[in-house]
Amino acid sequence: MAEPDEEREQGLPDWIRDPVAVLRRRWRAMLAVVAAGIVLTAVVVSLRQPVYLAQATVLLAAQKLDEDLVKPSSQGSPVEDIAAFTAEALSAKNLQTVIQDLDLYPELRESKPMLEVVTEMRKAIRIEASEDAVRPPPGPMRVEKSRILSIGFEANDAVTAAEVANRLASLFQTEGVRMRSEQARLATEFMRREVESAENALREQQDKIAKYEQEHPGELPSDLDANRRRIERLQDQRDDLSTSVNEAETRLARLISEQGSTSAASPQSRLEQARAALAKERSVNTDTHPNVVSLKREVAALEAEARRAPRGGAAGSVIEAARREVADYRARLAQTDEELAALDERIARTPSREAEISALQQRAKVLQDSYFEVLRKLKETELAQSLELSQQGAQVAVLHEAQAPTRPENGPLKVAAAGILASFGLAFCLAILLELRDPVIATAQGIEEIAGVPVLGVMPRLS
Known about the structure:
By secondary structure, the protein is an alpha+beta fold. 68% of the residues lie in helices and 7% in strands. The chain has helices at residues 2-10, 14-17, 19-47, 82-89, 92-102, 106-111, 114-123, 158-215, 224-258, 267-284, 290-308, 314-389, 412-437, 444-451, and strands at 52-61, 125-131, 146-155, 395-400.
């Protein structure tokens, strides 16, 4: 009774525990499936057209010069962005040209639009990318990165497959050169526009500074020392003029007193006295002081009276000369005071002018730094463009051209082997299905499951 207990514990279907019995019971159905599969495979092999795969290899290499010496003309390159590079090379326009030049898919072109023909061609293209470990040599000349692209094409004709693969490789090479040259050209044009814009901005700022300096002469920080020295000289000059005025007024007063008592009460003598008193008041008070204003009116009235009165002889001429000397000194003194007041105002406005022109100059410094930076970048992009034209930048080269394959990719042996394996697999699946639909009692466990009573004994198989 140990054998039935062991089988119950396993709990496996009968067709798994005894596959040979399944073959004995279902061999007719399985044989029919295998025979049908073999016949179908033979038909497929006889009707299937051969498919040939031709492959060409393309090398994508980054720039040969060290990036520390020469910056690349653009951040992206065929080495770093294979997807974008492949999309450019295998564009609909390029593939349409290949289809027309090599007369591909003639029957399909008659019934389908060109875009669908291009889509069908893309299905036959095989692209594989692999890293190419290139150790950079010492020195500035080196290859930063490189990749190898395997470009394949599947066709029913071996020669056509090779021609199309080589044409696609040529497209990759041409598109790589065009893309890098175009990127370098666009980068150079962009940097030239940036340099021109930065130069115009700097020139405008410099013009603003020059205009500001012209509008505020003598008030700029650069004029401060000169203004202070000018004030010192004018102050010394004013002191000298004040001394000269006092001396001239003293002489005038002496001449008037020497003219005699007879003319003491004359208008001219009173005018001289009034002028002397006015000069004394001016040395102490300002022109708006009441005493000064009153004396000015009195001097004006006496001058009018003196013009109406007859003039004296030689003494009057000397006094008149003394008066002109005093008036000249006073005019020079007033001019000096005006210059001093103007210089004081300029010095008072200098701090505000300094802040304003400092802001303009700082802006000009920022624009100048920006101009030199974009000018440096322009030189780098121009050099990078020259390297692209001389093939020292990122390169795309065809390493190996495709050769016409001698054997099809889907040979008859492969198809036949796959068909036979599939036939046996279907036959085995059919046998399992039949066992599940029409089970056979082959063990004690099967009897117990159907009858619902335990098995009392098992007789061994008799040979």
